[in-house]
Amino acid sequence: MADAAPDWINGDPDDLRRWRNASPEVVNPVLPDDVAITALAPDGACPGGLICTPDRVEGVPVVYFHGGGFVVGSPETHRINTAWIAHLTRAPVISIRYRLAPEHAFPAQAKDAVAALRRQLRSHPRLRLMGDSAGGLVALWAHAGLTVEERGRIGDVVLFYPGGTASIPRPVGLGEDEAGGLGPKSLAAYQRRLDPNGIAGGDARYDPMAEGFAAPARMTILGAGADPILYQARALADRLKARLLVAEGEAHSFLAALPSEPAITHLKRALGETP
């Protein structure tokens, strides 16, 4: 059982990572029996990670970027997400290990994301692109960093409760609750650690709210109805003309409850596995 969450605002990143790594879905995840998880070795500048491969491969491979406020998380902490996506889509899911803040300042994460996506494009004619929470923004950086021809080979983008975009204003009256590291001070702390020089905001290469940002041609966003940062998912969907689904009553990171209901049903909808 994980200890009480440390201080997301001023806490030591190592303490935050130890807490995340001790979460129940990391220590003892309920994984599908028909999915094998193997290591993806680094290749030059391209990061490594994990590959989740179902017994019967039929679908388009998925490249996945994990969440964690740019400070915590890894392909290992998000095995429960990627293994169940592999099971439902019948496709390999390549979960990418990108550099974390504050040890590595932005745009290191965007560079890793682009390199990782290009690495997989060398082996696959088409890909799907996915990410959760802060990893949703990393996925968008990966897509935006491609050439026009490369972007045409991305079948679709699916983001789960995305957040971490400093240029989306917090709605008035939303409150100051910092529970779960999702309040205004926590979000500001993630940005301070990620981008101390403030280079991303307003830059069309990195800011999905900026004019000229390369939006995916086909994108689905699954937001959580009880998520304090649902406003970010809504703003991204509106700005990038994405299909928005909302899991009413669910909290941020509710996919950690997979494969229980209603997490599995909402995941199937976002992946296009159910009407």
From TrEMBL:
Q: Which InterPro entries match?
A: AB_hydrolase_3, AB_hydrolase_fold, Carboxylest/Gibb_receptor, Lipase_GDXG_HIS_AS
Taxonomy, superkingdom: Bacteria
Q: Which UniProt keywords apply?
A: Hydrolase
Matching Gene3D superfamilies, A to Z? alpha/beta hydrolase (3.40.50.1820)
Q: Which residue intervals define the domain Alpha/beta hydrolase fold-3 in the entry?
A: 62-254
Extract the GO molecular function terms from the UniProt entry: hydrolase activity
Q: Would you identify the family this protein belongs to, as annotated?
A: Belongs to the 'GDXG' lipolytic enzyme family.
User: What's the protein name?
Assistant: Acetyl esterase
- Tell me which species this is from: Albidovulum denitrificans
